[in-house]
Amino acid sequence: MKQLIARTNKSVKPSKLIENRICYAGPESELSVYDTYEQANRVSLKADSLLYCGMVTGSKVMHTKREENIPFLPHESFILAPKEEVFIDFPDANMDAPTTCLTIEISSERIAQLCDRMHDVTQSSSIYVPYTFSADQPLHTLHNQATEHLLKRLVSDFVQNDPDRDLLVDFGVSELVTRILRHHGRETLLKYCQQDPEANGLNLAVTWIETNLAEHLDIYELSKMACMSRSRFYREFKRHLGCTPAEYQHQRRMSTAYQKLKQNGSVTQVSYDLGYQSLSHFSRRFHQHFGIPPSQVFSKSLN
User: Fold this and answer.
1) Which pTM was predicted?
2) Residue (of 225, 203, 216) closest to 249 by Cα position
3) Sheet holding 60-63, edge to edge
4) How far apart are the first and last CA of the chain?
5) pLDDT tens across 198-230, in order?
6) Helix or strand or coil: residue 61?
């Protein structure tokens, strides 16, 4: 994604060194690309409509009214409710390697339309999840590969001079909101699992993965646990959690590893605790996921 943005902006000199912004308007949405060239603290960000933020390169530290010092890294999303304000630190920004992120502001009307559509689609589901957005707290999530590919395509649709540009942007925004809603539903499902892990088979399988992150996934055993065929288990898992069981385990392992490393955990010990037999394999997967080696996490948390 960074390569695409760089090609788009290569002839544009920054007018500001902190939060230099380039905007592209779309139907009921607006894409902004921010490049920050100097370290800064407590830079305000908010919007009148729902704001999707995706990190491209570098790192940020987010401060909300409920939580301070939230690391924000590549392959992560931060979703703000309308008029929700956050304050941002830029610990790594410099002229040679600016911190880059994108935001997509989406109108409340478009959000309402898609929420209603998702309600209609899921009315027959055995697990109800409320497809709405709450201002109680921002959503801070990890990307999966499908979301990363969607963002690349959506940025391309915004910036290209295509005769079908507005239609393609509208399709892309609809898909992005649908993925956010699905993830919002996933968080609800996970809380439901924690409250009553034996409420149904899928909850039991998710709870097993959550509490056994170091264990090898046996899909046959998880399917039996969920009282489903293998194919139905895969289908239901992806429908409710937005990814395969293996992808979900990887996301949870990476998130857990990051939190443990922030607390001055040994890279070797964290790797072993999460079931990686090879330290080099763990380090490679961590670097692919977060864009930094695991050895840098604790030092970044001190800055």
Assistant:
1) 0.65
2) 216
3) 40-45, 86-90, 60-63, 70-72
4) 27
5) 667 888 898 899 899 999 999 999 999 888 899
6) strand
